[in-house]
């Protein structure tokens, strides 16, 4: 939707994300510290700050207070986002590698989940994810763990 | 490359995958049992049987023996595959949900990895993955864990 | 996967779909009658016969018996399908109109579901659908009804 | 069309949609309440406010009065829209699931409509839709119902 | 759907189109003559023979008799087709020019139809088309005429 | 080309189209009336006003006078346009139906034109089109008629 | 259209192109010699042999005689082709360079043709093309020359 | 690259193209006259003015003087351009016809160039092109001639 | 992310790239000289200035001093970039030729690397590249050399 | 072009590639050894065997003798290939990394080549490439070196 010249602009999730990034650059606080201060995980906190998840109102209020944002931002953080992500495979190497993993192992994930659980899927809605550093003498490793509720197909 | 009519067809990774699936349907063995018998993980075993990873020769020999395949199959299983995966986002719901996760959380994975490790990526080559059932009274959950070596960008 | 010349072909969901269509053309039975005979709905029955849903084993056995299919077909009907559907918007007018509806009303469905239920989605897995003729003096109408479980997003 | 610098901008459907959203945020009114006040259904009301349907002039006047919009907005609401929707399958999970449903069940809808009605389609023009909450102890369900006039193909 | 090796192939619309083209080449009959013999228009007759429209059963029987096709072909001609057409703009110059016309004049057609009839569309289902040679000293012209029922949008 | 900050903007066809639409909204004049006043057809007039055809200078002068546009607009209306139209099939239902018609009947148009005229095409340059309401008790119909000069392929 | 199993295959333009290439390889004749023998230009002759132009019947008869093809091939060479060419920019470097030329100089061709001739186009139907070697001490050059009739847009 | 708000904008090739077009409209000079005044061909002159070729510095100075542009423009005209052209086939009929020609005759150009010169390509870099009016009683023709150096593939 | 109107804009990598280009045009310094002054290679220096690589802080400070940029620019140069590159094959001939090389020789690179090193890849992260002029009497040559660490696939 | 059923199949480059691969698997010879035996580089030899470069006739004869191929294969190896490569970015990680390099460093290659040589390109036709193992205690490196003749743009 184009910016109307007939009505005042409303603050939206992109505005709030820009405010968070600006406050973060000025204060030097890390995502892990922000997450810690609002009592949530870093993955979810970053995602919700960037506008890809809705914050429960109390978490939104906490974030606004931690980052020094205007009060209207809490209202915006609590709204349901429209999740728009790159439809083409993204080019940034750090993100691309995850697409490569899902591309190579997608049919394997399907085969093993359905062998174990029956016909259905792992939910991406009732879902969580975390990232951890694994020390290793040959070079530290990134560990990514996700869990999602198994949902079985309905027959009717 | 089209099937030449001037030369005998060579057995390739698609042929071996079809043999494995056929032997698996007839014997009723599971992926977990196959993996166990060759002493590897189920994720890697399924992926290598389907032609998306190369098997070390001893594992290829073990698989051929477990599944009753012809000896030439071990040679084929040990070749480097050309990994071709769906360039468009796949439609099968069980696979699609993983693209949705990577689409929504890709920038978050990048931000948190680079905050923790510096400028670089998680390798998709020096990489492993596992799948586990997490019992839960509200409905069992699928847990997917992956680790990859952190690789820092070079400056020169 | 190409048809291997090194192993016997296995019956798959496309084979079974072709068998059902052939038996249906010869017997003149309708989808509604087939559904009725196996005690399921017409929408689910057509979809499972065409290979887009997995049949519970007893329903697969019933279908095989109703349509006079070989016993192996019941095994195939019970397998988890890989659901591949047209990624481009399809051109057949009868199917296209449903894409047009979802295209025009998609944001409306989202806004009203999230206003009523909170941040989340209607499941396409725990889901059912039916089709009905509504008589109308200005021309009979098609009624399509679908229900899906509401799934709320997780915060963690 | 680019914004001309040689002529005053004209109010258009995007401007009116922005005004409605702004007034809605300030007043806290729901789509259901707005629909109720103008005597139309929530689905159609949201869609017409967002610029995807044309309002009969009396409904446009009622909306302008309910939401406190300038009188010119009623003129704009009554114009025929150019319905532009996402040509690629959208990524927002709540909207995507409806594309998944249409993708999986499109051929089923076609087969059952044409078995019942003959060669033709369900109209997406002479069409209506509603959304309802179905209470359910295992989790409430979203019910979507749509009806469209059957249109038979012409032979000539 | 792949050609199953577990069931006899069924005659389909592509088979019948090939039979019609083969019989037409051998007999030298024109589309206009075929249309005339079955009492329908050339446009509709060609389209139905090529599998893009369903024939009423009596017309299918007439065509089978005129072209010397096997009786099963009449059954196939009467089935509802799945209309699949080139999603990309086609390259054949004779067909491309019609896309160019619709591309250039599409918004004009919309503006003038909606100015004359109100908010709605020209049906492509309750529709007919004809082609005629217009003699002209500067070079004969092709005249294409189409009519379709106007369908007004529903408000509810 | 981006708007240069080093040179005054030049009036272009988009500017003139915006002026025409603005003047048309204020005066309430219809496309048919505009066309009548400049002595041309409604299809061509709308298309040329929207910047998809070049006006002969006298027609451009007449339009400028009828609509009260600045004199420079006549110069712009007479320039050769760069005809840019939607490369993807457009989503607006009123325009889409014409693509559906060309998609379904494109091969038919080619077959019948070439049967009648020999190897060649209908010109989209030496071309005209008109739209008419056909009254009909079952619902009025839209009639679209186009003629284009037949152009035969050269052999050399 | 799939190869029907219910009717004998008909010889088509691809068959004839394969016959010409086979006869050409065995005899060692060049395109220039073939063109010369049938009294046409090499560009048109190659294009028509490959199925991208229709041959007048006498030229088709001459070609059949020169290349030793079966008589039915002359009938096929004289049919109107459906010209299908690569919709994506082709990758072969020798062909790609021509797309690069048209891409870079397309707007220039338009500007200079319309400056010289007025609003219209160069026909690609009433068209011819030739290729010539230009000797040059710094390296011989390829010269490509094409002419097409200018077609002016119609106003109506 | 977005317009930075931290640094003054630099004049670029789009700015200079806009200046040339503006000066050309005001003075009424033709491309042929501009080319003549700077002693170059019209094709190259238009292309370089539009930013698709780099001008030698003396030609850039001459153009700046002929068109009355600021001196900085000569510097910009002499820079190497980044040649960005429409990746999709363009819709303007005058440009499209050249894509049609290259699409239909691309394989012919390749076959005849390689028959005459051996394995290699016609250069699009060491290249020139001209356009000429050919008078003809049946309608004047556009003649386009291009020459490019033949480049043979290297073997090593 | 759109430019928020609720928060001051933050300097980003595009801003810094514009500053570098502006300072470079005014001073006439070459990329080779800039690289030399900060003690890095020209390839890496250009890439990091354009925002496609992160600079170690001391190199960023050196660049800011060499080019006379504001101090905040050093902070920005040191951030991890999101590497976005053209997903479609680019049209500029100088860049396109490298895609052509990778397209033609990609499978060759794979075959020879894996023959020499085993199953794995050349890293694009632990990577460097240089460009050199090779004098040659038949015309000087561009030499591009790249090295990347070999990474072997993991089995687990 | 489909396989004609009216003419014997001709051996083509795909057939020869399949013969080479089959002979290579049976003999265990490496690409480096094959190249050595015909006195050419491994990169060019692999590429020409796979059908992406034309062999001079003496090299083709040598290859046929080394690999024990039928004599007709030498004729085919010497023909000009049509170089078709993946238009979409390929998914195999070993090949993808080279696209990533060209994507990230494309504009850098252009800037540095044109700074050093002037306006022009590195030829991909008068071109060569080699691959080498660089021993390194932190892990061996792949070195890829390519040289191409610089070609300057023509002005005319």
Core attributes:
homodecamer, 156 residues, alpha+beta, 434 Repressor (Amino-terminal Domain), 2 domains, 6 helices
Summary of the model, kept short:
10 copies of one chain form a homodecamer. Chain A has a two-stranded antiparallel ribbon.
Give an account of the 3D structure.
The structure is a homodecamer of 156-residue chains. By secondary structure, the first copy, chain A, is of the alpha+beta class. Chain A folds into 2 domains: 65 residues, lambda repressor-like DNA-binding domains (434 Repressor (Amino-terminal Domain)); 60 residues, 2-Layer Sandwich (Cyanate Lyase, Chain: A, domain 2), CATH 3.30.1160. The first copy, chain A, is built from 6 helices and 2 strands. A two-stranded antiparallel sheet of chain A has the order 1-2. In chain A, helix 2 crosses helix 3. The longest helix of chain A is centred in the C-terminal third of the chain and has 25 residues. Chain A is globular. At the E-H interface, helix 6 of E face helix 6 of H. Strand 2 of chain A pairs antiparallel with strand 2 of chain B, so a sheet runs across the interface.
């Amino acid at each position: 939707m184009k910016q109307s010249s007939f009505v005042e602009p409303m603050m939206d999730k992109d505005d709030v994300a820009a405010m968070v990034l600006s406050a973060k650059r000025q204060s030097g606080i890390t995502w892990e510290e922000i997450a810690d201060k609002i009592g949530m995980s870093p993955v979810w906190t970053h995602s919700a700050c960037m506008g890809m998840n809705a914050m429960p109102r109390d978490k939104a209020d906490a974030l606004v207070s931690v980052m020094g944002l205007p009060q209207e931002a809490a209202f915006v953080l609590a709204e349901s986002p429209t999740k728009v992500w790159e439809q083409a495979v993204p080019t940034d190497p750090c993100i691309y590698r995850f697409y490569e993993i899902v591309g190579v192992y997608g049919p394997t994930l399907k085969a093993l989940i359905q062998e174990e659980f029956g016909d259905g899927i792992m939910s991406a809605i009732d879902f969580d994810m975390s990232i951890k550093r694994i020390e290793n003498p040959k070079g530290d490793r990134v560990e990514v763990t996700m869990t999602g509720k198994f949902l079985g197909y309905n027959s009717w």
